[in-house]
Every structure is written in structure tokens, then in C-alpha cells.
Write a structure and sequence with these properties.
Elements: H1 2-15, H2 22-32, H3 39-50, H4 59-76, E1 86-87, E2 90-91, H5 93-97, H6 99-120, H7 127-141, H8 146-156, H9 164-189, H10 194-221, H11 224-227, H12 233-236, H13 242-246, H14 248-264, H15 271-286
Antiparallel strand pairs: 1-2
């Protein structure tokens, strides 16, 4: 994780030079380079290597997934969305640069993500695989992906009739779809066949949902200092969460089920090459921030 994250961080640093107009590039870099575990890009590289590709083939896509993720955080923190002042232990983008610059920084990161994949992916990857990966990333972000999850999430705030099915829809789209795209794109760019792509897709969907279940658990069991973001916000805003609908013990049991299901999807791969993805499922289940 540390080795891959360092590689990704170096590539992200090079992806946005401090050019004119300075303010927007500073704001983009501020949020993109603020830290984080780089879960999505590292999974992208790990999936590429698991199917036999070299990580260099997927590094531009790995960076792109982090750009998209950072965009989603910038927009999610805005007053008109979740209205948060803290992200990764730092003031959120709109608190530091203003709402106008924060919105534009998110827009610019989203645009750059697709440009980065199109222009930086090595020529040894066939054009049809690059296009397929770009389409996969696009579908994860738009109205059938992240945006769908976000708008249903907003509409569900304070709704006492939100069901477990509704909550799963929100988090599959808002969280799991982008993580799924990272893993699937890594496999596509690494040369995976269709059967392998679908196996890693099912793995990633479960890990993505697991990520959110654990996030919900941490929100009610950890402090803001431990999390690096405002703790207890979901409870304060009366949002539906897994601990709220299942109870804390029930949410923990559901997380354990998702780990088992995710690891089952990796059974057909070389266990040595698949080891990082096994590790990630267990790591995400046991993370503390």
C-alpha cells in the first residue's frame, strides 16, 4: 500500500503544475494532494497486476480515479450538499478558497481525469481498451453512478421511511461504483478477459459497499480527530445509515459478510498476484479512520 500510494502521489503531483491561472491550480492541488490512503488508485494498480499487466499501464487511470474521487469530496462538502468544514484533517476547499473556486476546482479535476487517461496511457495498451476504460469511468461518475447516489442521498435526509434497499442503492452508486470502476479499469488496461473483468467487478462492488458500511460505523464510534473529518454528521443530519437501520452489531455482521463475499470472487486468480486485493478487503473492514 505504502509503495503504491507513494507512486500515485508522485504522479498526481506532476499531473497539475502551478500554472496560470494560479488560484484554480492551487485549489486543485490543495484537495488532490491533501493526503488520503489512495484506496481507489492503489486498487486500480493491484487489479492490473493481478491479471498480468504492468502497473505502468494503469497508472494514468489510477490517477484519474483519484481526481474524480477528490472532485466528489469537494462538491460533497459544499454548503448546498453535506456542508462540511473539515476534510482529511484540513479545512475543506470552499472554506479555504471560497465556494466559487471550490466548484470550479472540482469541475477542472473531473475534466482533467479523462484527459489524463486519454493522453498519458502507454501506447502499448490497445485503443479499444482505453476507450472501454474511459467509458467505464464515465458511467461510474454520471447519472447512473455517483450523481445518482448523491441526489438520492440528499432526497433521503430526514426521511423516516428509508429502507435498507434504499440505503444500498445510495451507497452502491455514491461510493461503490467509483471503486468498482477503479478495479475494473485496472483489469481492462492490464489485458483481462471478460470473465475476469466481471469477477473483479463483483469483488469491487462488495468492497465498495463494505467501505461505506465501515464509514457509517466509524462515524458513530470515532472522534473527528481520529477520522480527519467531522464525526457524527450523519446522526446530526438524521441520515439513514447502516448502524441506524441494522444496529451497530448488525452493521458489523454485514461488513463481515461483505468481506467473505468479496474474497470468494478472487478464488480463481493466482493467489500470489491476488494477495493485495485480499488484503484490501480485510484492511477496509478493519480500518480505524
Amino acid at each position: 500500500m505504502l509503495t503504491k500510494a507513494a507512486l500515485v502521489n508522485a504522479a498526481l503531483d506532476q499531473s497539475i503544475p502551478l500554472a496560470r491561472p494560479l488560484k484554480i491550480h492551487e485549489a486543485m492541488r490543495y484537495s488532490l494532494l491533501a493526503g488520503g490512503k489512495r484506496v481507489r488508485p492503489v486498487l486500480c494498480l493491484a487489479a492490473c497486476e493481478m491479471v498480468g499487466g504492468d502497473q505502468s499501464l494503469a497508472l494514468p487511470m489510477a490517477c484519474a480515479t483519484e481526481m474524480v474521487h477528490t472532485m466528489s469530496l469537494i462538491h460533497d462538502d459544499l454548503p448546498c450538499m453535506d456542508d462540511d468544514d473539515l476534510r482529511r484533517g484540513l479545512p475543506t476547499s470552499h472554506k479555504k478558497y471560497g465556494e466559487d473556486t471550490a466548484i470550479l476546482a472540482g469541475d477542472a479535476l473531473l475534466s482533467l481525469s479523462f484527459e489524463h487517461v486519454a493522453t498519458r496511457t502507454p501506447s502499448s495498451v490497445s485503443p479499444d481498451r482505453v476507450v472501454r476504460a474511459i467509458a467505464e469511468l464515465g458511467s461510474a461518475v454520471g447519472s447512473a453512478g455517483l450523481v445518482a447516489g448523491q441526489i438520492v442521498d440528499i432526497a433521503s435526509e430526514g426521511d423516516v421511511d428509508v429502507t435498507l434497499e434504499d440505503l444500498e442503492y445510495i451507497h452502491i452508486h455514491k461510493t461503490a461504483r467509483l471503486l468498482e470502476a477503479a478495479v475494473v479499469c485496472g483489469a481492462i488496461l492490464g489485458g483481462a478477459d471478460d470473465e475476469s473483468v466481471e469477477k473483479v467487478r463483483r469483488y469491487a462492488l462488495r468492497v465498495g459497499l463494505l467501505f461505506q458500511v465501515v464509514d457509517d460505523i466509524l462515524d458513530v464510534t470515532r472522534s473527528s480527530e481520529e477520522l480527519g473529518k467531522t464525526a457524527g454528521k450523519d446522526l446530526a443530519s438524521d441520515k439513514a445509515t447502516y448502524p441506524k437501520l441494522l444496529g451497530l452489531d448488525g452493521a458489523r455482521r454485514f461488513a463481515a459478510e461483505l468481506v467473505g463475499q468479496a474474497c470468494e470472487e478472487l478464488a480463481g486468480f493466482d493467489p500470489v498476484k491476488a494477495a493485495p486485493l485480499y488484503h484490501f478487503a480485510n484492511y477496509i473492514a478493519t480500518r480505524q479512520n
